[in-house]
Amino acid sequence: MQSFLFLFTLPSLIISQTSLSEILRRSDRSRLFDTLTEIVHEEYKDKGQSSDQIVPVQYQRREASIAAANEKLQDILYEGDILVTPQFLERVVDASLRRQGNRLKRQAFLDATYPMSIWTEGVPYVLHPSLSLSSRASIQRAISFWHEETCINFRPRTNEVQYLNFVGNGDGCWSSVGRDTKSGPQPVSIGAGCSHFGVTSHELAHALGLFHEQSRYDRDRFVTLNTNRVPRRLLYNFAKIGDDELTTYSLPYDVGSVMHYAPTEFAIDRRFPALTSVDPNLQFAMGNLYGPTFVDVALLNVHYNCASKCRSALNCANGGYIDSRKCDRCKCPSGFGGRLCDEVDVSFSQNCGGIVQVGEDVRRFTITIRQSGMIREKDCIYHFVAPPRRRILINVLQVDGTCVEGCHLDTAEFKMVADLRPVGYRLCCNEQRGSRLVSVGNIVPAIFQSTRKTYSIRFEYTLQAVRTKRRVVQSDMQQTIVDVEN
């Protein structure tokens, strides 16, 4: 949704210490899950990659995994963490069967329950005593984030009948999607292993109306499902949602969305991903747990019609849009700043960041961002700029970061494609040495980030050759070396 939106209703659920297994019967869903499994298997049986097409990456262990936390609930929850009704699953099955019948899809639109399925009057919430201290802190952080980044208002519940009930009863991380118009307390479970901000912001986004990014009906243009790497009984988790249940609002697909599966989610062997990006350079951006992306936030802003809170429009550049909390400013894609998103965003230190002009000569760039004392996020932001109608070539020589799925900790990100809103090419793993990146346009925003430990990268940059052969004299190569700590 962009992740995308959709709406359905659940029977009224009141949760105190009741487990999810006691609320929902597995038999209500098993038949429909089995049907979806066969549909997905049939659609993708002759597609995907063989294992010899993949170079295994030695990822570090993930800090949090929704699929792992919910492993005991795999045959109850949809897509690993979503609470749905059998009626909704039946609609997914029907839409999947229609697609296989080669019927044309309609233009995306919202279903009949919108706008009843969004929290138009704000979101009352309760933090149940079963929550751990760390879960409570993370939930409050997620609430603050979505409040600040959208026009959605949150408030502790007083006497409201409908509200979000955050519980921590040990049944993992899960939520329904959108406001449940037929329930009173609407449960959002933040149980054991779910207190990471990437998880709480993800589950709260579900409750506000976002579905998983890889469930978009257009996902096959951007990621490939390798069914040979997923246990057959779990293939239903990769069914696409039809356009009569969601809308993308014409926002771009974002592999780096916090609502996107990690590449090895539900995989038989973590060395071989279940999902691979069509653009190989985006593979390492998949599985972000750092928090919602620009596109995630933009989707909820559009879904809740936040722009209507401002009396006048702004001419935001580079895919930005008006900030409904500060109507005189735009909200900008990562890498951009200024009131209208037409400037290089501010770096953490005056000793890094700015504009780098790219010419015919091959030049070398080395940047190291160090952590000392109090660990904090440190971003150095550059724009590599070529002459009009010229492209930029980047050859990666060395990467020293924190190699996790999503590359969301200590990493570099190069935005090489025309649409600058989604997450770009991220580099955090040693296996990415030798990567060759070519831009679509003449401007490449580059974000170098350290959140936990020292991050370092070395690369060469130049104009993409047109026809003439470029001569490189190593001894004369101009080098930029940036080493920042404060």
Q: Can you tell me about this structure?
A:
This protein is of the alpha/beta class. The chain has three domains: 20-285, Collagenase (Catalytic Domain) (3-Layer(aba) Sandwich), CATH 3.40.390.10; 294-343, Ribbon (Laminin), CATH 2.10.25; 354-484, Spermadhesin, CUB domain (Jelly Rolls). It is 16% helix and 21% strand. It contains seven helices and 21 strands. The chain has helices spanning 20-23, 27-44, 66-69, 86-100, 133-149, 197-208, 294-303, and strands at residues 123-127, 154-156, 163-167, 173-175, 185-190, 223-225, 275-277, 321-323, 326-331, 336-337, 343-344, 354-357, 363-369, 378-385, 392-400, 411-414, 425-427, 436-438, 443-450, 455-463, 479-484. The strands form six sheets. A five-stranded mixed sheet has the order 2-1-3-5-4, covered by helices on one side. Strand 8 (321-323) and strand 9 (326-331) form a beta hairpin. Helix 2 (27-44) runs parallel beside helix 4 and helix 5 (133-149) packs across helix 6 (197-208). The protein is globular, with a radius of gyration of 23 Å. The two termini are 37 Å apart. Residues 6-18 and 102-112 have low confidence and may be disordered. One of its GO terms (molecular function) is non-membrane spanning protein tyrosine phosphatase activity. Zn(2+) binds at residues 202, 206, 212. It is found in: Secreted.
